[in-house]
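User: Please predict the structure of the protein below. I'd like the answer in structure-token form so I can feed it into my own downstream comparison script.

Assistant: Understood. Taking the following sequence of 266 residues as input:
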Amino acid sequence: MEAHEIDYSIYGEEMQYVEIELDPNEGVVAEAGSFMMMDDGIKMETIFGDGSSRDNSVMGKIFGAGKRLLTGESLFMTAFYNTIPGKKRVSFASPYPGKIIAIDLRKFNGKFICQKDAFLCAAKGVSIGIEFSRKLGRGLFGGEGFIMQKLEGNGMAFVHAGGTTATKELAPGEKLKVDTGCIIGFDHTVDYDIEFVGGIKNTLFGGEGLFFATLTGPGTVYIQSLPFSRLAKRVWASAPQGGGKDKGEGSILGGLGDLLDGDNRF
């Protein structure tokens, strides 16, 4: 299916949003909950799957939507169409601090692999599917499990990453070792596997996990500095525990520090 040609602008620094300009009859699909704002004249429609399947039968739609369940996403997506003459705009926001990356699938030979929760929105016609890992070790220990998201087509797609992003162009045979949670996505020509950290001290006391992700070129790799899982763990560790009392923010004074600054209430 030929994807719609869309124009876009990305705004903001830490909490970005992407504004997509739609010509008459153009459309964009997005994950539920990413919508920010839109001009009058744009029609919003909840669809089964991503709406890109050539098989419009009931079973075809169910199969297309069922693939999304395997990645932990909703059966439904939201499509936005410009239904009147003139250009109209619709915007989608980042779910947490980080960067929005524009992926032109034509530059990736029509296929890009990304982590399961990275997809934000895409031009109507882009297929949002699944990519199974064929390697047992990668599936068990790779951080993303056996399934990643697969974006296919010839249009624009937008993915979200946490913190600051880095782009690496790998030459044939060149290898990059990455924390398993820090991968945003990569060219389908990149070979993705895992590697044991090694060493007793590294394994027991390193605090960096037991495995690296190894990415071998050729191809493009996108890396994020703050995976959402890492952010969530830090927030959880700092959250008040049991009855609203915090942990003294790591201070050796602990509860005594709370008494001194007036945070404890009796």
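That's the full token string. The chain has a mean pLDDT of 77.
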